[in-house]
Amino acid sequence: MKEILRQISEFLRSGFLVMLVLVSAALGIYRLVKLQIVAAEEENQQHIVESVYTQVIPATRGEIVDALGEPIVSNKIGYNLIIEKAYFPTDNKAGNAVIYRTVQLLKDAGYEWNDTMPVSKSEPYVFAKDRDRDIAEMKQNLRLNKYADAANCIEKICDDYEIGDEYAERDRRIIAGIRYEMLLRSFSMSNVFYFANDIDLKTVTRIKELRVTLSGVNIVEEAIRTVENGTVIPHEIGYVGPIYSQEEFAALKENGHPDYALSDAVGKTGLELACEADLRGENGKKEITVTNGDVSSVVISQEPVGGKTIQLTVNSKMQKSLQRRLDEHCQMLRNTDYECRNAYCGAAVVLNTKDNGILSMATLPSYDLADLLDDYNKVAEQENSPLINRATDGLYRPGSTFKTITATAGLDSGKISGNTSFYCDTNFKYIDTWYHCTGHHENIAVTRALTVSCNIFFYELSTRLGLDLLLDYERMYGLGSPLGLESGDSGGYLACPETYEKLGIPWYVGCLLQAAIGQSEVQVTPLQMAVVASTIANEGVRYRPHLIDSYWNNTMTEQLSVKAPEVAATVAQNNAHDVYYYIEQGMIGAAQTPMLPEYDLNNLGFDVALKTGTPQSPRGTDTFVIGYAPADDPEIAFCAMIEGGKYAKYLVRGILDDYAVCYPESKIGRALRGRTIGQVEE
User: Fold this and answer.
1) Window from 264-273, 387-396, 474-483 with minimum mean pLDDT
2) pTM (predicted TM-score)
């Protein structure tokens, strides 16, 4: 029994020792495996490279709509072709192949691609004309010296990006142009490259089918600027375009726009430029995480916020009718009067007298904004410079319409009273020079002098005023400097020794007399003279003219602010009511001159106040009219001018008719109900 117990004891002890050895071995193996796994994980972690890039999500640009809420420029959802750096080949030759295949797809579909390189499209390569700044920037970007020619630039790009002889020379130029555009646009993980814009659904489908062979090429749906009503004040609306250079990009950032991307479209002219900060909105952001060269996640970190919608004071229907009337009047002059055979150009402005909001503003010739964006050069090269807005930037002598300003200066300063009379016998001698009047008016006071436009009355008055006093009143009326229109306007200049010195012509004392009747070197815009008329209508209160009525949110469901009337100056401060009573009576008398029935301003149910002018110009004689209506409670003020033409006053009845149709509940609208001639088109 003892032997059996001893054997059992030894067996248990041996088994325990074996178990101990096995457990120890297992623990050793476990620790060894664990160390290997940890080491492997640490080794893997050492080879993981993770980078995060921020990419811009463009905001929807705000619309510009007319006084009735009808869009002039808006947005549509369109398809843009882009290249994303995260997916684009890092190998130059592979990247060139992607670019080449994408270009072929665009060619087949009839699309252009983005290439602004200032070099000709084919050999022999030459630099583009009038792009010296772009050429200098290109040489700097390519690290070439200033003596490099266009061929040197192309060859440098081909060398840098390995664009070889496997491509035909024309294709090498295409790839080089796109490569340079990518460089210019700072193509990177943060900046996508816009290859082509606004492509059709058929082309989109084709590109998506071939995306497996087009690494980095993608289609994005974005809001694309579109012209809805391109004939409505196209000069003032303006247009958007890409950021053309690093210099422009830097300037935008310096002006308080740090979140611009080089791929952004920005306002270039007109309200698109002037209201860029309001229209552009706030771009969104997305974070792109790249792990070991592959995109591992894309997260939108900030949603974009659409820009504000801008509502204008301009009534599109009234605007189109004014443009048509101006054009038809010039056609009539050319067809019926040999002296007016070159009457192709003119301008007209209609203001709301309550705040100088612009109701309509025509310039002739004009253009369709859509045509300009389609082919800028074709529009720009048309006869008579349609790109000039003659209403805001055309400079003209105002002729006798200016006499209203001279009369204001005389009456308000006390140099004359309403009853002061001068004798007109057609001829007037000042020092050693004779000046003339078109009539023989005998003793005449200011009201009658305005009605019949007596030159000699205003010659006499100017000698009492002197130059400095006359200039003071001109400036109070807004002449000689820009009026501050949102889209910009010219200031013109005043007849004075300083102006004459700049023009290189001598100033004589007698120049004052010519200045007092709107001749000499007084140069004004039609907009300025419309403001003069409005200021008279408001008894000396001059409002800053404006195109913007209000701001709305992007969807135009909430009005954010309304433009308040802004008083720019008060002209007659001594005895305004009496001053403007005499001036207004003279202008009413001028409007009552009989005309053909379709132009007549009598028996309308209200009085019209106007003043005409026939200033001398390099073209011979221009024609001006300014005025307002109704005279006793003004609603609108206006100015019309025709270069080398006659009878601008014939446009007044049409202006009144159009206003009556567009604003039927106004005093003018109620008075002319059922009596308008040639109503605006629906």
Assistant:
1) 264-273
2) 0.85
Q: What band does 658 get if pLDDT is binned at 50, 70 and 90?
A: very high
pLDDT score, position 485? 98
Helix (H, G, I), strand (E, B) or coil at 580: helix
CA-based angle 23:27:28, to the nearest 5?
115
The Cα 117–Cα 139 span in angstroms is 11
Q: Three-class SS of residue 97?
A: helix
For domain 52-312, give the fold: Penicillin-binding protein 2a (Domain 2) (3.90.1310)
Give pLDDT tens digits for 516-532: 999 999 999 999 999 99
Q: Tell me if 83 sits within 8 A of 187, measured CB to CB.
A: yes
Dihedral pair phi/psi, residue 274, rounded to 5°:
-65, -35
**Alpha carbons 390 and 321: distance in angstroms, whole number:** 17
Query: Of 606, 532, 519, nearest to 569 (Cα)?
Result: 532
The dihedral region occupied by 113, where left means phi > 0, alpha psi between -120 and 50, and beta the remainder, is: beta
What's the rounded Cα separation, in Å, for the pair 347 and 364? 6
The C-alpha angle 14, 18, 21, rounded to 5 degrees, equals: 140
The dihedral sign for the CA sequence 290, 294, 297, 302:
positive
Point out the least confidently predicted range of 20-34, 97-111, 170-184, 372-386.
Answer: 20-34
Assigned token pair, 209: 């089918």
- Among the ranges given (8-17, 219-228, 357-366), the one the predictor scored with the smallest mean pLDDT: 8-17
The 8 Å CB, 24+ separation contacts for 664-670 are 666/635, 667/606, 667/630, 667/633, 667/635, 668/606, 668/629, 668/630, 668/635, 668/636
Measured CA to CA, the distance from residue 647 to residue 663 in angstroms comes to 26
Q: Where are the domains of the chain?
A: 52-312, 316-671
| Second-level CATH architecture of 316-671 | 3-Layer(aba) Sandwich (3.40)
Q: Which amino acid is at 423?
A: Y
3-state secondary structure 45-73: HHCCCEEEEEEEECCCCCCEECCCCCEEE
* pLDDT at residue 5 tops 60: no
Tracing tokens 């792990």 back to the chain, one arrives at 291
Q: What is the pLDDT of residue 573?
A: 79
Tokens standing for 44?
Answer: 């893997």
Q: Average pLDDT of 61-79? A: 94
Least confident of 127-131, 290-294, 344-348: 290-294
From residue 398, alpha-carbon distances to 497, 564, 640 in Å are 19, 30, 11
Q: Which residues contact 205 (CB under 8 A, 6 or more apart)?
A: none
Q: Is 22 left (phi over 0), alpha (psi -120 to 50) or beta?
A: alpha
pLDDT digits (tens, 9 = 90+) for 369-381: 999 999 999 999 9
Structure tokens at 221: 């749906």
CA distance 106 to 195: 10
In the numeric block, which tokens belong to residue 309? 């919608």
Count the residues in the chain.
682
Between helices 455-465 and 403-413, what is the axis angle to 10°? Answer: 50
Distances (CA, A) of 366 to 42, 376, 379: 72, 13, 9
Measured CA to CA, the distance from residue 325 to residue 334 in angstroms comes to 14
